[in-house]
Structures are given as structure tokens and as C-alpha cells.
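Human:
Take a look at this sequence-structure pair and walk me through the C-alpha cells.
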Amino acid sequence: MTIQRGAIYFVNLNPVKGREQSGKRPVLVLSIDPINQLPLVVTVVVGTKGENISRDYPTNVRVSSEESGLPLETVFLCFQIRSLDTTRFPPEPAGQLGKEKMNEIEAAVRYCLGL
């Protein structure tokens, strides 16, 4: 299985602790493809249903279903960055972000990390 940057997968994030996002959620692959091809972990940004987030913040990126290929509007929580083992990922992605939306994600991640 090849996991690529910009792909969106539905992944079970359990077990979790505290305020971490839990359950089966969309995750956006953030790590670069050369790292994704190694037997390491994949770095992702966790998403949630758009209806769960009533306001837009500089830490979040709202993505329409047309932009992602997912069935619902999704908000990617760029302060919720996780590294996941590849065994959590299903064989095929559920969606994909284009370059423009990936640029928005990158800007929000940089904001969250103070880069």
C-alpha cells in the first residue's frame, strides 16, 4: 500500500487520552512521500464534521465535499497533528486534497507550530 501526501483516509484513532480526537475520523496525510514510503509512521492532521465546528479559526481549515471527495464538509484541526502506524490505514483513500487546499493546511500547521 502506498500512502501519499494529500490523501484522506478514515482511520480509527482509538485508543486516546484526554482531549485527543477519538473514534473513526478522516485524517489528511501531511508527511512527505519519501517518509510515507519508509517503514516508519505517517504524520496526519485530524478532521471532524464541518457541522461540529460553528466558527472558523486560524488553526482550522474547512474543506467542502467537492474539494475533498468526502461525503461531508470536513474541518481539519491543524493543531491535532498525529503520527500513526501504517497498519491503521485502509487500503484505499476516501478522498484527496488539491494543491491549493494543501497550501491552506500547511499555513495553518505553521501557525499552530509557530513556524
